[in-house]
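Please decode residue identities from the backbone states below.
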């Protein structure tokens, strides 16, 4: 199998975007507050990421309302469950991506779909479309492309984590494999990739916050990815790199706030 991820990493302006993102994450990881309070920063990042992921699914709630457990919306609750369990799924994601995706969906959709549908790819073409992509791929195409993605993720690659995470994110958003909560699952899988591949091993950044900040171009960039052209795929990877960079800056602001007390 050719290294498809590495091929994407060489597309125009992608190496430069990856380098900027790496620098932003490294600045975050070097903050001295993390020597003693990294778990608190990770927890805050998870909360902020869940809130942003729910907002990208169309359900906005104030951060303090979510922090206080005052939102019972199933989208918000699903995003919170996913964020809370990400750390325990890194090993499964590395070895069995399809199993990890099923677990992510079971967490995201526990309050929204029938129990027998949790973690199972949709059997038909019925799928939510918050990004207005149009009709989803057929169930047969979903199964085939998930197999390809799983094979790629468990094969060696020279591509940086940013590129792999962007392709995971884009592919899952494009496929909408479960029909409900796919955006939450896609963003969580991308974040898992950053953890597993060493860019952000303690999950301190909140890329979801960056995507929310860039929400006006989120769908546009994704449509470029789904078009499959080199320019479209490169544009999507650059978009994701910028979102991770913004997420790292947000986490750095959290570190500064903790330091100030």
């Amino acid at each position: 199998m050719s290294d498809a991820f590495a091929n994407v990493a060489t597309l125009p302006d992608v190496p430069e975007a990856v380098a900027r993102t790496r620098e932003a994450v490294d600045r975050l990881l070097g903050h001295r507050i993390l020597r003693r309070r990294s778990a608190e920063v990770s927890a805050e990042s998870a909360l902020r990421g869940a809130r942003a992921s729910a907002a990208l699914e169309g359900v906005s709630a104030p951060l303090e309302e979510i922090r206080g457990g005052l939102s019972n919306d199933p989208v918000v609750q699903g995003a919170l469950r996913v964020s809370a369990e990400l750390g325990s799924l890194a090993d499964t994601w590395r070895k069995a991506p399809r199993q990890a995706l099923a677990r992510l969906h079971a967490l995201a959709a526990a309050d929204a779909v029938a129990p027998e549908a949790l973690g199972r790819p949709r059997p038909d073409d019925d799928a939510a479309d918050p990004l207005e992509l149009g009709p989803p791929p057929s169930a047969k195409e979903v199964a085939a492309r998930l197999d390809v993605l799983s094979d790629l993720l468990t094969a060696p690659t020279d591509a940086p984590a940013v590129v792999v995470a962007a392709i995971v994110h884009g592919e899952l958003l494009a496929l909408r494999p479960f029909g409900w909560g796919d955006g939450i699952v896609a963003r969580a899988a991308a974040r898992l990739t950053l953890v597993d591949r060493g860019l952000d091993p303690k999950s301190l950044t909140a890329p979801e916050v960056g995507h929310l900040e860039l929400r006006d171009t989120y769908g546009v960039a994704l449509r470029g990815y789904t078009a499959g052209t080199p320019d479209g795929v490169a544009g999507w990877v650059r978009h994701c790199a910028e979102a991770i960079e913004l997420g790292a800056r947000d986490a750095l602001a959290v570190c500064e706030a903790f330091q100030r007390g």
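Observation: The radius of gyration is 17 Å.
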